[in-house]
Amino acid sequence: MSARHEAVFTIPHDHPSLPGHFPGRPVVPGVLLLDAVITAARGAFALGPPSGLPRTKFAAPVLPGEAVRMILTLSDGGRLAFACHVGDRVVASGEARFPA
Hints:
Oligomer: single chain
Order of helices and strands: EHEEEE
Strand order of the largest sheet: 1-3-4-5-2
Number of strands: 5
Shape: elongated
């Protein structure tokens, strides 16, 4: 059995991590994408902290202000598959594990 959740988020242009990542052409750090995924999953599925991230792939940069649509699928055993999209392109995907 699995459960699915979708959400949209945006990292604002004035986020404190952006000036150093990278100067002159800010790019949203991958850790902010992962934080949004974990926060959404914990809220949507009433989960505790994750126990691991066995697989994560960053396929394309995300720019500040871009709307990121995430699709989360929680399977039995606490496995969470995720995909983050900007428009029609996948920018990040992977799997997180949560204690069962």
